[in-house]
Amino acid sequence: MKTLLGSFDLLNRVTERFEPANLFEGIDEANLLAFERDWRPAFAERLPADASTAERIAANAEDAHWDWRRLAEIYRNPLLFQMYAVECGDRTQGLMLVRKGGRFSRHPDHPRTDLVYVDRLATAPWNRPRFAGEPIYKGVGQLLLATAIHLSMDEGLGGRIGLHALPNAEIFYRDVMQMTDFGPEERHYGLCYFEMSSAQAAAFLTGQNVEGA
Amino acid sequence: MKMRITNNWLRRRIERDADLDTDAGLPITNVDVLKAFVPEKAPRAAPRPATAVASMTSQPGVLLGRLLRQLRRRDNVDLPRLAAEVRVPESELRALEEGGGGAPRPRTIHQLATFFKISPRALLALSPATAERDPELDEAAIRFAASSDELSKLSHDERKSLNDFVSLLSEYRGRPARGKR
Q: Considering the domain B58-172, what is its CATH architecture?
């Protein structure tokens, strides 16, 4: 089921104006079709048909192969998983899949406590600074991350979230979001693991943390 | 679920935050991805002739290692410092420089490319992970390899050769998509 959580403004970098975007809990067929008909061709345009994952990383399209329709089928248990979508200008601008349990904090503030794990967070290819020559909307990542923190609070997990950043996004999570960086993880293909503690989440939502990038 | 942030909160964040990529998640739905992220077991390196350029370029890992060593020498960065800067284990970097260690992880390629300001596609094209060679890049690599001597300090000619090669790598946009060549 898809429920409107609210309307928030994204910055259109091209027009330099803010535009209203809708944030939804749950995704529907329109979002899946948007991924298949809008996102995939945009990725394909920039990548060789037989691009390896390493080539996708080089082009900042590491997640080009993610099949959101399949993910929606696999992770449809609402007790454990939840999906979110951001729509603006009649297009899907971002998608997120989170896991509500089964992952535990490594943060020294509250070790071994439950947290919300951001399994996937993807912005549309045309919004990515290192993929698109002229990226369009800014703010999709911040909005989805804030959503994950709210979910963590609603689930009684104190705003704690964790995620594995794709290489091009490490700076965002470490310096801008000021999440705790636990470094590259061997068992997760060398990707860096980041956590936001309860205190960091509170600071993020009250705007007390200041980005260093 | 109730969102407690306001529209103004998001606007302030957007105005304040640096313009960066934000994507996250494990690449676990594609076999190719698993292959690309898990380093291949390195075969024991066979002894290589010191001056056999053709032999060296037929082993992209060796060429990549030589390039990384030269870049470190150029920038006067020792391995421990490089490891700290790019946040990749020193042992992994050492193995890369020695031409072993199999295919480097995509993240390692990304971090090194960012540090040395080289196109990651170019670094990737020199790595053993690349199945399809790019003849133009290989030719440039041969010229570079022929002029580089890893045993001494960078001479004027070596530095020029390295800088020419790095310049090419910086502008490298990758092999053309199939059907577009």
A: Orthogonal Bundle (1.10)
